[in-house]
Structure formats: C-alpha cells, structure tokens
Design brief:
The protein is mostly helical and about 90 residues long. The protein has helices spanning about 1-20, 25-45, 50-65, 70-85. Helix 1 (about 1-20) packs antiparallel against helix 4 (about 70-85) and helix 2 (about 25-45) runs antiparallel to helix 3 (about 50-65). The longest helix has 21 residues, at about 1-20.
C-alpha cells in the first residue's frame, strides 16, 4: 500500500515539474515537493533511487528558476518509477 502511495506521489511530482517547466508553480509548493523527495532519501538511504531522488529535488529548484529542454529527463524518470511501483 505504501509503495502504491509513493508511486502516485512520484507521478504528481512529475506533473508538477511539467507545470514548473511551463512557468506555472509556486515557491511554497516547490519546497514541499523537493522536501518530499529528500524525505524519501531518508527512508531509502541504502538504495541508489534515494540519491537519484535527491538529485531530482535539487533539479526542481533549477527548473523553478530557469527551465530548459533537459527538464523532461527527470520527469520521465519519475513517471516511469511511479508506474512501476503501481504495478
């Protein structure tokens, strides 16, 4: 049940990153989303995916200030990770 919830939250993070890429997003929600990804690192510090989530959390701040074409790489990663955890 927890894995499915985390998968859904990963998909929501990816959708929010798409909104940030288009210029829609708030500073408070960006902090909340990146804080969620850092919190996931605390729970899964022994796996590589936790550290990738930490990199994505810092990349969300980069998207907030200056979006680029490469924004879709972490978006696709979070979507596929969310879909795999739902299966």
């Amino acid at each position: 049940m927890i894995l499915k919830t985390l998968g859904i939250l990963d998909i929501f993070c990816a959708l929010y990153m798409i909104l940030l890429h288009t210029g829609i997003g708030s500073l408070k929600f960006t902090l909340l989303i990146s804080g969620y990804l850092v919190l996931k690192l605390i729970f899964s510090y022994k796996s590589l995916t936790g550290y990738i989530d930490l990199l994505i959390a810092t990349y969300i701040w980069k998207i907030y200030f200056s979006p680029s074409v490469m924004d879709f790489v972490p978006i696709i990663y979070l979507i596929q990770k969310g879909i795999v955890s739902l299966i």
